[in-house]
Specification:
- Helices cover 0% and strands 54% of the residues.
- The chain is globular and about 40 Å long.
- The chain contains no helices and 11 strands.
- The strands form 2 sheets. Strands 2, 4, 5, 6, 9, 10 and 11 form a 7-stranded mixed beta sheet that branches. It has a 4-stranded antiparallel beta sheet with strand order 1-3-8-7, with no helix packed on it.
- It has 118 residues and is mainly beta.
């Protein structure tokens, strides 16, 4: 089992920045993808950014150039640096970890609220 602990949400004005972090603990698959999804009120959950344990990242088009995902050297914590935030970035952000060798096995954090408003 894997547990995911998120932190770093909050409120910010448009154009501001926030950094989210997510730390995985437990029995972590060696080849995994850790990333962030978000869900706005009334909307569907959408993938934001993903970091692969063997290297490589992906981003949704809506955040490309504004958000950066990274991992610590141990590989168990991912960060999402968000800059130039827009009101449409307002959502609950969820950390996700997937076993790439068995994508039916995935884990979710509890979610952290990000609100962008003037």
């Amino acid at each position: 089992q894997v547990q995911l602990a998120e932190s770093g949400g909050g409120s910010v004005q448009p154009g501001g920045s926030l950094t989210l972090s997510c730390t995985a603990s437990g029995i972590i698959p060696g080849f995994n993808a850790m990333g962030w999804y978000r869900q706005a009120p009334g909307g569907e959950r959408e993938r934001v950014a993903t970091s692969f344990s063997r290297g490589g990242t992906t981003y949704s088009n809506s955040v490309k150039g504004r958000f950066t995902i990274s991992r610590d050297t141990a590989g168990n914590t991912v960060y999402l640096q968000m800059s130039d935030l827009k009101p449409e970035d307002t959502a609950v952000y969820y950390c996700n970890l997937v076993n790439v060798a068995d994508t039916s096995t995935d884990y979710w954090g509890q979610g952290t609220q990000v609100t962008v408003s003037s």
